[in-house]
Amino acid sequence: MKKKDITALRSKKTDELLKLLAEKKKEAQKSQVEIKAGTEKNLKKASNIRRDIAVISTLMTEINLMQEEEPEKKVEERKVDK
């Protein structure tokens, strides 16, 4: 994935990322079968797809962590204000 693709993924919601992740997993499985059957000429295709899956998973983790931190910050701000 290029940097532009990653920045585009950052703007997507978690639901969209989950759908994309499922598609990539199916694509990875299909490419593995094609490589083993000898029909796929690009042998790095499976590793590139796995890398994309890792990037998407990392972005989802970052989004979840950011969402968990936001309520904690609001609670801390309330304590400081009082």
Pick out its properties.
ribonucleoprotein, ribosomal protein, 3 helices, 82 residues, elongated, mainly alpha, 84% helix, Large ribosomal subunit protein uL29, single chain
Describe the protein:
Helices cover 84% and strands 0% of the residues. The chain is mostly helical. The chain has one domain (3-81). α2 packs antiparallel against α3 (45-81). The radius of gyration is 18 Å and the shape is elongated. Belongs to the universal ribosomal protein uL29 family. One of its GO terms (biological process) is translation. InterPro entries: Ribosomal_uL29, Ribosomal_uL29_CS, Ribosomal_uL29_sf. Keywords: Ribonucleoprotein, Ribosomal protein.
Structure summarized in a few sentences:
By secondary structure, this protein is an all-alpha fold. Helices cover 84% and strands 0% of the residues.
